[in-house]
User: Fold this.
Amino acid sequence: DRWYETEHLPGLAAVPGTVQARRYFADNSSPRYYACYDLAQREAFGSPAWLAVRATSWSDRVRPNFINTKRTMFHLVLDQAEA
Assistant:
């Protein structure tokens, strides 16, 4: 939790092209946690700045504890009233 709150989310939120980074918790379902990264451009994901945040020594220690991870990209669909 501390890694997410103090390094990972703030680091990825600061990457150019990232609008925000948030983490959600589900009390009684799986997965227990869901991290969401809103991007202005898809190119932010996997950029050198993004990869640098993921390549810290703390990230290397934490990552082996993740199980059943899944990455999915979504596109925002505007309501007709918003378009």
